[in-house]
Amino acid sequence: MKSLNITCITSHLGSGGAERNLLRLAEWLAEGGHRVTVLTLDPDVADFYHPSPMVKRVVAGGDAFLSCRWFDFACQKRRKQALRRSLLATKPDLVISFIDTTNISVLAALRGTEIPAIVSERIDPGLHPIGWRWDLLRRLYYPSARKVVFVAQANLTWAGKMYPRWNSTAIANAVLAPDSQKQALPCFNRYNVITMGRLADQKGFDLLIQAFAGIADRFPEWNLIILGEGPLRPALEKLAAQQRLQQRAHLPGNMEQPDTVLQAADLFVLSSRYEGFPNALLEAMACGLPVISFDCPSGPREIITDGRDGLLIEAGNVQALQEAMQALMGDSDRRRQLAGNAPQVLERFSEQRIKGQWLSLIEDVMNC
């Protein structure tokens, strides 16, 4: 494939799995000899992740992130034109967009340009609400994308119900081998249950706190660690206090290298109400942690082989989660057995394999 000008776009480069995976893709493309620009829309969110020197970093100018009322058509026109100018300024042969509402805005801005676009949904779109107006616009604009990429195979069933039909495929997230250095947090106890993600309702950390509270007295040497930041921090801290877990449940914030902390823990729990293809779960298994996960409609079942390298339990069932945690917290041999098989995700979702799928997709899109 000849060298291309490729623009990768998302809202911002704050701390999140989608942002990190967009940068990883941008760097793969740059390493392959393409000229890559990472363009973001929101000027107020500071970069948590930073692209390599091979990738050009640009923030959209003018009114590209203007806040508009739905029926303020003049405002929406200014926003669309500003985004279009910012995109065209990068002189792209191909645009790759991540995250639902950004994808819709990009496809609208590119309309009439004949510049091919690949858009990627990073979460389960059947469960993640974006509002009925955005949903209508997604149904309008997604058929114009050269390819709609989902992160879980299960999402293709949902996409298959759309009309006009979307040109859809699924490419999982890649997982990298962990850093060899372990870092135990000051709030660690002798044994530690750990999880991580944005402190938002989707991640179900309230359910995890409730489950841990029900067995905390039986396991006084265990603490609960929730890595991440987000709008629900006050509510989660209040819930932990109500459950008398002030000294046992800790929210230390974001970590630039979470794998170093994961390796020092003893059990990982994914309590999400729904997911895309959870990076946190992949990273925990790559670190050799035994894992428990809610069996969300998409994501975890494609990662965990139940009973072999982790445990899948009924989604949203706090009692089942509590029982599974109790079983593993009380059985070190079972934890070791699951942990021994967990790192096989490094082969199944290797960087080389996922990178190859993206490169093949891009070649197909540019040749069609």
Tally of DSSP helical segments: 14
β-sheet strand percentage: 15-25%
User: How many strand elements?
Assistant: 13
Tell me what the CATH architecture of the largest domain is: 3-Layer(aba) Sandwich
Strand order of the largest sheet: 3-2-1-4-5-6-7
Instruction: Average the pLDDT over all residues and give the rounded result.
Output: 95
Biggest β-sheet description: 7 strands, parallel
The CATH C-level name of the largest domain is: Alpha Beta
Q: What is the CATH topology classification name of the largest domain?
A: Rossmann fold
Given as residue ranges, the uncertain stretches (5+ residues, pLDDT < 50) are none
CATH homologous superfamily of the largest domain - what is it?
Glycogen Phosphorylase B
Helicity, as a percent range: 25-40%
Distance between the termini: 13 Å
Q: Per the principal axes of the C-alpha atoms, what is the gross shape?
A: globular
Order of helices and strands: EHEEHEHEHEHEEHEHEHEHEHEHHHH
Structural class: alpha/beta
How many separate domains make up the residues?
A: 2
